[in-house]
Write a structure and sequence with these properties.
The protein has 134 residues and is of the alpha+beta class. It is built from 6 helices and 7 strands. A 3-stranded mixed sheet has the order 4-3-7. The chain binds zinc ion (ZN) (2 copies).
């Protein structure tokens, strides 16, 4: 039996979503394409990009903009991100933010917080230690 076009598209979509959910590295669209292609060699770059944007528009994944790129995250729970300005890696920040008063009370002077997106920029510990070695 030959799978219909629609079935194939659904299978591709769930494959991309499963891949995103399985990683913690906040991959870029390019990286997602690279990884997915290993298992689905016939998938096109355009399809991967379209599927990712679709997930984003539906709020199923987060898109984190950095200076150079857009990174995707299937973890849509409230958490902040740390973006390393040296290596461009995107890290999750959970614990520290739960201690922050504003985020804990979900309230500011101007209104109630429903969701948030916080980006920290800096040098990650990996890059920091590499620097101090040289
Ligand atoms: Zn770094
Ligand atoms: Zn994240």
């Amino acid at each position: 039996m030959i799978a219909s076009k629609k079935e194939r598209a659904t299978a591709q979509k769930s494959f991309i979503f499963d891949y995103l959910r399985s990683v913690k590295c906040h991959p870029t669209a390019e990286k997602v394409y690279e990884e997915v292609r290993k298992k689905l060699p016939t998938i096109s770059q355009g399809t991967v990009y379209r599927v990712l944007n679709n997930f984003k528009d539906k709020g199923q994944v987060l898109a984190i903009d950095t200076k150079e790129n857009v990174h995707f995250d299937a973890d849509i729970s409230d958490h902040a991100h740390f973006i390393c300005e040296e290596c461009g890696n995107v890290y999750d920040v959970y614990d520290e933010c739960s201690k922050c008063g504003i985020l804990k009370n979900r309230k500011t002077k101007v209104g109630k917080i429903n969701k948030y997106q916080i980006k920290f920029y800096g040098t990650c510990t990996k890059c920091g230690s590499r620097k101090s070695l040289s």
